[in-house]
UniProtKB/TrEMBL annotation:
Keywords of this entry: Coiled coil, DNA-binding, Nucleus, Transcription, Transcription regulation
Name assigned to this protein: MADS-box transcription factor 50-like
Database matches in Pfam families: K-box, SRF-TF
Coiled coil: 124-170
Length: 212
C-alpha cells in the first residue's frame, strides 16, 4: 500500500510533532555521518529543537569547522571570486540595457519617419496609430494650457476692475459747502452804501435824560 504524501506544514499536535522531530533528526544525523565517511568530507551539523535542546554532529569538532568556514570567507580568493561574479553580473546588465536602448532608439527613429522602408503594412499601421494617439495627447495638453492661461487672464481682469472701482470711489470730489445766512437779514441792505444811522448826544451824569 502506497504511503500518502505528507503536507509540508507545521504539525499542530505536540506529541506527533515531537515524534516526527526525533525520527527526522536521527535520519539527518545518520546522513551527515554517511556523507563524511563515504566522501571523506568535513561535515558539521547543528540542530536546535523547539524546546531549545541542542543536537550536533561533526567529523572533528563543530567549532573547528566554523573557524575554517570563517577563514575561508576571509580568503582573498573568495573575495576575488565574488568580485568576478559581480563584474560578470554588471556586464550582463549593461549589455541588456544597451540592447534595450538600441531598440528604443530604433523605435524613436521610426516615429520620426526614418528607416521605415523595411516595415510591413501592419507595422506602419501601428506606427500611425501611435502617432495619432501622441498627437491627440499633445493637442489635449495644449488646449488645457490655453484654457488655464485664459482663466488666469480673466481673473487678472476681474482684479483690475475691482481695483479701478475702488480707486474711482476714493477719487470722487465732495460737494462744496454752501454758506447759510440766517433768516431776517437782507443781504441787499448790507451791501448798500446809503444806509443812514441815527445818533444821539447825551450830556450829564449817567441817569439823566437831557439831550441835545
Amino acid at each position: 500500500m502506497a504511503r500518502g504524501k505528507r503536507e509540508m506544514r507545521r504539525i499542530e499536535n505536540t506529541a506527533s510533532r515531537q515524534v516526527t522531530f526525533s525520527k527526522r533528526r536521527n535520519g539527518l544525523l545518520k546522513k551527515a555521518f554517511e556523507l563524511s565517511v563515504l566522501c571523506d568530507a568535513e561535515v558539521a551539523l547543528i540542530v536546535f529543537s523547539s524546546r531549545g535542546h541542542l543536537y550536533e554532529f561533526a567529523t572533528s569538532s563543530v567549532q573547528k569547522t566554523i573557524d575554517r568556514y570563517k577563514m575561508h570567507m576571509k580568503e582573498p580568493g573568495s573575495t576575488k571570486r565574488a568580485a568576478v561574479e559581480s563584474i560578470q553580473h554588471w556586464k550582463s546588465e549593461t549589455a541588456r540595457l544597451a540592447n534595450k536602448i538600441e531598440v528604443l532608439e530604433a523605435h524613436k527613429r521610426k516615429l520620426m519617419g526614418e528607416g521605415i522602408e523595411p516595415c510591413s503594412t501592419e507595422e506602419l499601421r501601428e506606427l500611425e496609430a501611435q502617432l495619432e494617439k501622441s498627437l491627440s495627447n499633445v493637442r489635449a495638453t495644449k488646449q488645457k494650457m490655453l484654457l488655464d492661461h485664459i482663466s488666469e487672464l480673466k481673473e487678472q481682469e476681474r482684479m483690475a476692475l475691482r481695483e479701478n472701482a475702488v480707486l474711482r470711489e476714493k477719487c470722487k470730489v465732495e460737494p462744496l459747502l454752501q454758506l447759510t445766512i440766517p433768516e431776517g437779514i437782507n443781504t441787499s441792505d448790507q451791501a448798500s452804501p446809503n444806509v443812514e444811522v441815527e445818533t444821539e448826544l447825551i450830556i450829564g451824569r449817567p441817569g439823566t435824560s437831557d439831550s441835545r
